[in-house]
Amino acid sequence: MIRVLHELDALESFSADFRQDPDYSDPHLLSEEQMRLNLRNAVKKENNLVLGVYEGSGMTGLFVFLVLPEERYLEMLAGLSRSSAAYGEIMNFLRVCYPGFQADFVFNPRNRLLKTLLEEQNAAFDPVQHRMELDAFKQEGDTAGIVPLSRQFLGEYCDMHSRDVYWTGEKVFHAPERFRAFLAVQSGEIVGYVDVTHPYDTNEVYDLQVKEAFRRRGWGRRLMAKALAENRPKGMLLFVDADNHPAIRLYQSLGFEFVPEGDNQTAFWKIPC
Questions:
Q1: Distance CA 238, CA 97 (A)
Q2: CA–CA separation, 66 vs 49, rounded Å?
Q3: What is the pTM of this model?
Q4: What is the mean pLDDT of residues 160-170?
Q5: CATH code of the domain covering residue 185
Q6: Domain for residue 241, yes or no?
Q7: Angle, nearest 10°, between helix axes 219-231 and 245-253?
């Protein structure tokens, strides 16, 4: 049975039981800040849907979804369960309530129960990513040629920006309360960009891109140096594809370290009508 939850205080022990579980922990809930933003405060947010799955009087699953009806989009912000039946109930609930929506799942790749169900729904999968963190800004870096995103460069930035993501260039530009974006500019041309959050205790690098013809010239390092300088003294985290060895070497040289049990994978499911 699924219940919509409006109070989470009594469920703290349920979520705490998953924090150190290598197979069923949730990558959205690794830090205290993430626990507060994605779970404890979820019931207070207008676009969040908090669901409990119960068998008898006992809870077998706890899920939080961001739901944007006008965009026909939802995203799993937290998913905690060790029950195949609980995941199945949630998938059925989404089919009934949100037909035609695009549903994104960011999850622990060792969670075979959820991954198997998504595979059965013919979901598309991104590669496994490693989580890396920098606790505090450590040193100055070269930021020559790096400028903040402005309306002057908006069109060129959006043309270059990744499109198979929820946070497109247009959305990043119109969310200044959440994002900063910095551009690498050479001879008046945008050759790269980085999108980073800024309001949190630990912020996140969402997207870093450099045009193919301008790679291996230090632009990625300059973009990251600017992002880290503007973020000081807060922490920074990022996710990198496990097989992207050049990017991993760059981040390690800047002081980022792997977070144990921090891997994640994203699946994309178009819920059938």
A1: 33
A2: 6
A3: 0.86
A4: 92
A5: 3.40.630.30
A6: no
A7: 50
| Number of residues written out for the chain | 273
On whether residue 244 sits in a domain, the answer given is no
| Residue 245 lies inside a defined structural domain of this protein | no
CA quadruple 211, 165, 39, 85: dihedral sign: negative
Q: Which of 268, 254, 271, 247 is nearest to 130 (CA)?
A: 247
Please indicate, yes or no, whether residues 170 and 81 belong to a single structural domain of this protein: no
How high is the pLDDT of residue 136? Answer: 62
Q: What is the pLDDT of residue 138?
A: 63
| pLDDT, average across residues 2-14 | 82
Give the contacts of 262 (CB within 8 A, at least 6 positions apart): 27, 30, 130, 131, 132, 133
Q: Of 1-5, 61-65, 152-156, 162-166, which range is least confident? A: 162-166
The dihedral built from the CA positions of residue 92, 93, 97 and 101, taken in this order, carries a sign that is negative
Distance from C-alpha of 51 to C-alpha of 5, rounded to nearest angstrom:
6
